Amino acid sequence: MNTSTGGAALGGCHVVSGIAFFGEYAPKGQPVIIYSLIYNGTYMLPSFVISAIVIILVISVMPKKRFLQVH
């Protein structure tokens, strides 16, 4: 859950900064928001997927009794 929330927030910030600061590099005739979504999506989506897989693997190998301990 936190991975998806963090990934969405990070992606949103990257898209907004892409629109604000790098919109001039969009090809003529292409909307800036589409350019920013495509550009940032090409590396943000794989990064999110890899992070989610690693977190799932780490949680799956953790000892289960750590979750059950009362502090």
UniProtKB/TrEMBL annotation:
It comes from the Bacteria. The chain crosses the membrane at residues 43-62. InterPro entries: Thia_Transptr_ThiT (IPR012651). Keywords: Membrane, Transmembrane, Transmembrane helix. This is Uncharacterized protein.
